[in-house]
Amino acid sequence: MLTMALLVAAPLSILIFATFLGVRADVMSAMHNPFFDMKFAVTLSLAIPAIIVSLHLSRPEALMRGWGWLLLLPVGLLAVAIGGEAMMAPAMPMTMRMMGKNSRVCLLAIPAMSLPLLAGALFGLRHGAPSHPALAGALAGLVSAGLAATLYASHCTDDSPLFVASWYTLATALVAAIGALVGSRVLRY
Predict the structure, then answer these.
(1) Using an 8 Å Cβ cutoff, are 164 and 85 in contact?
(2) DSSP character for 25?
(3) Would you say the pTM of this structure is higher than 0.85?
(4) How many alpha carbons lie under 13 Å from residue 89 in its C-beta half-sphere?
(5) CA distance 155 to 93
(6) Can you point out the beta strands (E) in the chain?
(7) Could you tell me if 6 and 120 are in contact, meaning their C-beta atoms sit under 8 angstroms apart?
């Protein structure tokens, strides 16, 4: 049900992306930048493990123990990417790389594209019986934010891992908080 609900919700998120953002103009040259590719690796390494953990926690007897490490994959990838960027000659100061040019767009776009996916994820998880509804809701938020951030990454011209660590993470945390709040109510059984 979770997969089907996400597939039903995805076209609305894609429509929001296509209507208001679109793919960045220099996408062909950006593909030669390893930090551009890193954004997709980070966002997908959040979304996919969050789906796996969400499915696991949708059973009433399920515990988070032994599964939480999967959610650390994007943290590890970001740490490696930030370390790699630190070893390169900086094209701009660290604060400029962290702030970027699109922080406001990022903070609005990822949550906006996440909302249809979050509704779908919560609907899908409702067919399970999670014993920790707020945690399951937060994971639904991580799923939806990871998928929405993957879309957004193709628009965002800020490729610095510092930008991703700051603004993508903040937007994701917002969606996870919304998911926890709504999930605590709608995922109770």
Answers:
(1) no
(2) T
(3) yes
(4) 0
(5) 23
(6) none
(7) yes
User: What's the rounded Cα separation, in Å, for the pair 143 and 146?
Assistant: 5
CA distances from 101 to 9, 22, 98 (A): 29, 16, 9
For residues 165-178, average pLDDT: 97
pLDDT at 131 over 80: yes
User: CA-CA distance, 177 to 18, in Å (whole number)?
Assistant: 26
Average pLDDT over residues 29-54: 93
d(CA 46, CA 85): 21
Tell me the one-letter amino acid at 180.
A
**Secondary element (H or E) of residue 14:** helix 2-20
Structural contact between residues 123 and 144, judged by C-beta atoms closer than 8 angstroms: no
Which structure tokens are listed for 27? Answer: 């996408």
C-alpha 60/C-alpha 102 separation (Å) is: 41
